[in-house]
């Protein structure tokens, strides 16, 4: 396109291609995401942090249009801060999720946002809520989202267990995100994981396994020497 | 201090009333004027004590170079500079908006320095309200009480905080240099050379970027704009004298005719000279 002299990325909106997931475990929730933001076929940011803070113990995982999800997260973060200030108590995860649903549903025709809200509160412990495109709100104990999630539905069905221990759950989330990143072109970079418990959030970053390592899944027809 | 996310300000927003008419004109064969774009290579890099921003100096309309030495790095505050890429008119408008907003913010909050994130947030929220109609992207670099920061804000309103970034048509070329050679905690000289090399790569490999490399260094308590840090394209030096000498064209005959003019009205206006 002559008008842009080769800056193809100016024609495409910035989207968080993405793989995101959140899982309830024994003691809280674990959230995970890849780190790639793309504009068309160009990777605009290879170290994105898609795990966005709403409060110290409530985070959201963003997928869809980067501008839409960042703007909504900013609005919800602000209105939650105001709510906590006015009501003199910490917001519940369900309240934050409902606020997300309010925006995602009312503006469902104009925005592209698939959001997972996850956190810990003193009333109900660790909770995960999914607010996909269209603005539905549903609580699930394990949920995946984003373009990369289509590749790991089978893996998650097979390997998810209720109330896992912390390290076991971190391994599960890490493996799931890496499997999705392997297959999905719009997901890549590193795997960011957040462990939210009553003590706050613990963040970890995992790098992709080296290409020299034997792949985790080998086709049945190939003999491995 | 609720930002007006979803309110429609009838007087100040863009008016799309003529879009239908314009579409019909184009369908009837009218060729619309092209926008002046700043083709561009801009990049920014954080180093140990601050941020270095760099840009080329070419502005284009379609395939024509409109301006050889234009300015793409703008001062917003003493500690915050932005580099812009996109439609020149939108960039200029947004720079005016940023400057007045940040100065008003500083005066209203009685702050000595405005945090960089303040500009990033207000700018990204403003872009989001306009749904991407303001066609420019900005690299925002600055140093505040929390250290040096570099942010990118896209035209739809998304923002990214990065240690190094490039934008514009030459960004692919510049990014190769940054990805190879950026490392944390560089010295100021290393950072300046890295940015200059990245912009040079854009100038040399991209048609939309050219002429010179301008740099801007922002440190904790000072900032410095260096125009023409590196000159890559310049006019060549003429070796021979190409002027046409008197007598080259032979004069055969000469006739002088006086044109008679009637003076109808004489008006003398005094020129204001300070």
UniProtKB/TrEMBL annotation, chain A:
Primary localization class, coarse: cytoplasm
Q: Which SUPFAM superfamilies match?
A: N-terminal nucleophile aminohydrolases (Ntn hydrolases)
* GO terms for MF: threonine-type endopeptidase activity
Q: Which reaction does it catalyse?
A: Cleavage of peptide bonds with very broad specificity
Keywords, alphabetical: Cytoplasm, Hydrolase, Nucleus, Protease, Proteasome, Threonine protease, Zymogen
Q: Which GO terms describe its cellular component?
A: cytoplasm; nucleus; proteasome core complex, beta-subunit complex
Q: What does this protein do?
A: Component of the proteasome, a multicatalytic proteinase complex which is characterized by its ability to cleave peptides with Arg, Phe, Tyr, Leu, and Glu adjacent to the leaving group at neutral or slightly basic pH. The proteasome has an ATP-dependent proteolytic activity.
Q: What is this protein called?
A: Proteasome subunit beta
Which PROSITE patterns is this protein grouped with?
A: PROTEASOME_BETA_1, PROTEASOME_BETA_2
The positions flagged as active site in the entry are 18
List localization entries: Cytoplasm; Nucleus
One Pfam entry for this protein is: Proteasome
Query: Which terms under GO biological process does the entry name?
Result: proteolysis involved in protein catabolic process
Q: Which InterPro entries match?
A: Ntn_hydrolases_N (IPR029055), Pept_T1A_subB (IPR000243), Proteasome_bsu_CS (IPR016050), Proteasome_sua/b (IPR001353), Proteasome_suB-type (IPR023333)
Going by the entry's taxonomy, the superkingdom of the source organism is recorded as: Eukaryota
Q: Which family does it belong to?
A: Belongs to the peptidase T1B family.
Q: How does it assemble?
A: The 26S proteasome consists of a 20S proteasome core and two 19S regulatory subunits. The 20S proteasome core is composed of 28 subunits that are arranged in four stacked rings, resulting in a barrel-shaped structure. The two end rings are each formed by seven alpha subunits, and the two central rings are each formed by seven beta subunits. The catalytic chamber with the active sites is on the inside of the barrel.
TrEMBL record, chain B:
Question: Which Pfam families did the record assign?
Answer: Pr_beta_C, Proteasome
Signal sequence range: none
Its Gene Ontology cellular component terms are: cytoplasm; nucleus; proteasome core complex
- Which residues does the entry assign to the active site, renumbered to this chain? 40 (nucleophile)
Q: Per the annotation, which location comes first and is thus the protein's main one? A: cytoplasm
Superkingdom per UniProt:
Eukaryota
Domain Proteasome beta subunit C-terminal: residue ranges: 236-267
Give the transmembrane ranges. Answer: none
Give GO terms: molecular function aspect only: threonine-type endopeptidase activity
Decide whether keyword Protein biosynthesis is in the record.
Answer: no
Where it sits in the cell: the answer is: Cytoplasm; Nucleus
> Does the record bear Hydrolase in its keywords?
yes
Key words, A-Z: Cytoplasm, Hydrolase, Nucleus, Protease, Proteasome, Threonine protease
Q: Which reaction does it catalyse?
A: Cleavage of peptide bonds with very broad specificity
A biological process term (GO) from this entry: proteolysis involved in protein catabolic process
Which family does the record assign?
Belongs to the peptidase T1B family.
Q: Tell me, how does this one assemble?
A: Component of the proteasome complex.
Provide the function of this protein.
Component of the proteasome, a multicatalytic proteinase complex which is characterized by its ability to cleave peptides with Arg, Phe, Tyr, Leu, and Glu adjacent to the leaving group at neutral or slightly basic pH. The proteasome has an ATP-dependent proteolytic activity. Non-catalytic component of the proteasome, a multicatalytic proteinase complex which is characterized by its ability to cleave peptides with Arg, Phe, Tyr, Leu, and Glu adjacent to the leaving group at neutral or slightly basic pH. The proteasome has an ATP-dependent proteolytic activity.
Q: What is this protein called?
A: Proteasome subunit beta
Q: Which organism is it from?
A: Polypedilum vanderplanki
């Amino acid at each position: 396109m002559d008008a842009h002299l080769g800056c193809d990325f100016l024609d495409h909106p910035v989207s968080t291609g993405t793989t995101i997931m959140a899982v309830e475990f024994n003691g809280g929730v674990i959230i995970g995401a890849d780190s790639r933001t793309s504009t068309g076929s160009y990777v605009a940011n290879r170290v994105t942090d898609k795990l966005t803070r709403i409060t110290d113990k409530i985070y959201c995982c963003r997928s869809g249009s980067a501008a839409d999800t960042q703007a909504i997260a900013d609005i919800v973060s602000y209105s939650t801060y105001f709510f906590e200030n006015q009501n003199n108590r910490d917001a519940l995860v369900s309240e934050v999720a409902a606020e997300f649903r309010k925006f995602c549903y009312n503006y469902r025709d104009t925005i592209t946002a698939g959001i997972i809200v996850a956190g810990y509160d003193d009333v109900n412990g660790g909770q995960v809520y999914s607010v996909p495109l269209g603005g539905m709100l549903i609580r699930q104990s394990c949920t995946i989202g984003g373009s990369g999630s289509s590749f790991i539905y089978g893996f998650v069905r097979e390997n998810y267990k209720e109330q896992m221990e912390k390290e076991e759950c971190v391994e599960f989330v890490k493996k799931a995100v890496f499997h999705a990143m392997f297959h999905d072109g719009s997901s890549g970079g590193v795997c960011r994981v957040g462990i939210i418990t009553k003590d706050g959030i613990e963040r970890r970053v995992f790098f992709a396994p080296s290409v020299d390592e034997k792949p985790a899944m080998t086709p049945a027809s190939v003999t491995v020497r | 201090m609720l930002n007006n996310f979803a309110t429609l300000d009838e007087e100040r927003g863009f008016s799309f009333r003529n879009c239908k008419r314009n579409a019909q004109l184009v369908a009837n064969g009218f060729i619309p004027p092209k926008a002046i774009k700043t083709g561009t290579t801009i990049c920014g890099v954080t180093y140990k004590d601050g941020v270095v921003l760099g840009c080329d100096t070419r502005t284009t309309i379609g395939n024509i170079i409109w301006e050889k030495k234009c300015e793409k790095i703008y001062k917003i505050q003493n500690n915050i500079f932005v580099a812009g890429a996109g439609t020149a008119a939108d960039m200029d408008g947004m720079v005016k908006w940023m400057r007045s907003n940040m100065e008003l913010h500083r005066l209203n909050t009685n702050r000595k320095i405005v945090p960089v994130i303040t500009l990033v947030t207000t700018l990204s929220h403003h872009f989001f309200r306009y749904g991407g109609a303001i066609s420019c992207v900005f690299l925002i670099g600055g140093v505040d009480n929390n250290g040096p920061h570099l942010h990118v804000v896209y035209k739809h309103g998304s923002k990214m905080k990065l240690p190094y970034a490039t934008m514009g048509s030459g960004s692919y070329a510049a990014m190769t240099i940054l990805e190879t050679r950026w490392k944390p905690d560089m010295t100021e000289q290393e950072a300046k050379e890295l940015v200059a090399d990245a912009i040079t790569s854009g100038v040399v490999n991209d048609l939309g970027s050219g002429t010179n490399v301008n740099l801007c260094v922002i440190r904790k308590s000072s900032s410095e704009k260096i125009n023409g840090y590196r000159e890559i394209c310049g006019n060549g030096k003429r070796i021979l004298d190409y002027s046409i000498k008197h007598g080259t064209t032979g004069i055969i005959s000469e006739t002088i005719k006086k044109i008679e003019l009637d003076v109808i009205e004489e008006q003398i206006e005094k020129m204001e000279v300070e």
